[in-house]
Design a protein that fits this description.
about 240 residues, alpha/beta, Rossmann fold, six-stranded mixed sheet, three-stranded antiparallel sheet, 8 helices
């Protein structure tokens, strides 16, 4: 059963993050609401990963506020994050899930059935007894998604979930994301792949140098970009 506590909307109010004297996020004002996926795009170093970490509550803003359902003290009970290179525990795929389910407060008697359900959802049901660290990159990413879903999140943050994967593995991950969205979970993800952004996004957020350059619905963003940076990025030109 879902916990009753909501983490949505997630709101950034003039958020800045400075580390080592370097501004990583600069004056970010943005809201993630329930519904279709939001996709962050932009060049390396634009601040996408830091924004996701701040939205998860892993980074404290240097200035401004991040709030979850209006509170900046909300525990991360209804949100989860999957990083670009997830760490696998030295145990089987299903044991990785059992560990995640235990941390999510799922009783021992329920874990086996829930783990089997999650493995099937992400398309690796037959790999449960395989050592997690011997799975392929795409299989590990799907297992990482299953572990994140063990928390039964209301919002799921994904940092470049298909980076370095081949087309078949990329399609498998995208299919999982669509299945997650169909369950009513809000997905916020970053990607370098404009094709992937077009396939998955409802809303696009373009970042550059720690700022939001342009945002909007995906069809309008690609058909009629308003800023020069967006036009350049869509055309495949470098943003410097």
């Amino acid at each position: 059963m879902r916990a009753p506590l909501s983490n949505l909307p997630v709101q950034f109010d003039d958020v800045g993050v400075v580390a080592g004297g370097v501004t990583i996020l600069d004056s970010i004002s943005l809201t993630f609401t329930p519904g279709a996926p939001t996709v962050l795009i932009g060049p390396n170093g634009s601040g996408k990963t830091t924004l996701l970490r701040a939205a998860m509550g892993l980074i404290k803003p240097t200035r401004g506020r991040v709030t979850w359902a209006g509170s900046d003290m909300m525990p991360p009970l209804r949100r989860a994050i999957v990083f670009q290179r997830p760490t696998m525990l030295r145990r089987s795929a299903v044991a990785n899930l059992h560990y995640a389910l235990a941390n999510a407060g799922i009783g021992r008697a329920q874990r086996s059935a829930r783990a089997a359900e999650l493995l099937e959802l992400v398309g690796v049901g037959e790999l449960g007894e395989r050592p997690a660290r011997k799975l392929s990159g795409g299989e590990q990413q799907r297992l990482a998604l299953a572990r994140a879903l063990a928390r039964d999140p209301e919002i799921l943050f994904l940092d470049e979930p298909t980076a370095s994967l081949d087309p078949a593995a990329t399609k498998a991950i995208e299919d999982v994301i669509r299945a997650v969205v169909a369950r009513g979970i809000k997905v916020v993800m970053s990607t370098h792949d404009l094709g992937e952004a077009k396939r998955l996004a409802d809303e696009i957020v373009l970042m550059h140098r720690g700022r939001i350059v342009e945002s909007g619905l995906v069809a309008a963003f690609f058909a009629k970009p308003r800023t020069q940076e967006a036009k350049q990025f869509i055309a495949g030109e470098l943003l410097v």
